[in-house]
Amino acid sequence: MTPDPDIPERVSPREMIESDLCIGCGACAAGPARAVSSRMRLDRLGQYKPDGPASWLNAPTRLLAKTCPFSPAAANEDDIAAARFPHALGWDPALGRFEATYVGAVADQTLRASGSSGGLVTWTAIELLERGLVDAVAHVGPTAGLGFGYRISRSPDEVRAGAKSRYYPVELSGVLNEIRARRGRYAVVGVPCFIKALHLLRAAEPVLAERIVLTLGLFCGHSKSARMAESFTWQMDARADDIEVFDYRLKDPARPANWYAAGLTLTTGERRRKDWWRMVDGDWGAGFFQNAACDACDDVVAETADIAFGDAWIEPYASDGRGTNVVIVRSPVVASLIQEAIEQGRLVLEPLTPERVAESQAAGLRHRREGLAYRLTWPRRGIRPRKRVPPRAEGLPTRRKLVYRLRAHIRRWSHRLFWIARVTRLRWLYILWAQAILGLYQALTYSRGPLGRLADRLVPQSR
Fold first, then answer.
1. Are 27 and 196 spatial neighbours (Cβ–Cβ below 8 Å)?
2. 119 and 63, same structural domain?
3. The domain containing residue 26 runs over which residues?
4. In a domain, 405, yes or no
5. Burial category of 394 from C-beta neighbours within 10 Å (exposed 0-12, middle 13-18, buried 19 and up)
6. How confident is the model at residue 2 (pLDDT cuts 50, 70, 90)?
7. DSSP state string for 168-194
8. Cα 311 from Cα 324, distance rounded (Å)
9. pLDDT number for residue 1
């Protein structure tokens, strides 16, 4: 077979970074092609990037080409899922392979209240431990102040301490090294590209294939840099050094689940909260502080994970402030565990059609499929991603093209302007730009305000 000239046989960490295809997962710094002193570090924009000797950073290898989740030479999600779930009962173009799809929450209201959504991620991790299906769970938990990072929990109480969503950069290299160093069966919780990276590493390294036995996926819109949390603290009149606890999603049963509010506790004990919609960069879909690699991703629902969880952003569930999960089960072992818990009344889940699950993630899927097809037609430097979505601009309304262009602009310039404001200590510089660009984005996307009415006249929304 003639090699495809657009698919490099070898890639280096530096090439992936310079091609805007490094998500910061840590697979290279902890993979079989790692250097002795390789590590992950937060760069000046608050995103994890590999660091190490130039001889490693700049050396293209076949191993990295096969194990980096955004490498065009790596197996895609369809290939991985076909190998992992060959006898799946169902398939859907948006969800991939599955055994069952549900919507609901845990019956334990205390556990439900402690999570960002319906409590299913924490419940599943605990259940795997208590059933003896795994010896430990690798998941994200809080560190000091604004920080979060991967940890390994070996008891239900340790798992509970890591509950809730963390919109903060993390990386896997530390826990992967711990998994190598200590025998046992591990479950790993992660976003789609991290789960994909784990399976690529498992295919290249037998010890990881033996020890990572289950993966729990989290639906993902995109990854944020550390600067989003910092921006939120600016807008809540707090200094990062004075923060004891930061919470991205405070729950309020009296309000709809999608009315996000951030909260923090200062070292003095004072608590503050502010709604996301009152933040200049609180509109998730606008793309503030998004990692560039996310614009080359086509997996929203963790298609390679044994079980995957998201928020039920459809009615009547979105209005339930207690939080509700949509769940995609792919592993027969996990499917049996879930079904038994439903029958015992420990999980309050009901079947939800794949179409409705996809509807609950409609905005993310549109950006990762229709939007990705359009972005793949744009000129880009370095390595070109190879995706399941073919490049396509034809037939896309002008207004949608403008929205995708503006999101890319916001993603790029939010990092740069925040860095300038941070270095010069001129916070107003970023705040004023973010206010203005958010107004333009919401006018173009939602037809809000006078600018939105003008946009409707000049470039009408497609029907």
1. no
2. no
3. 13-73
4. no
5. exposed
6. very low
7. S---SHHHHHHHHHS-S-EEEEE-HHH
8. 6
9. 41
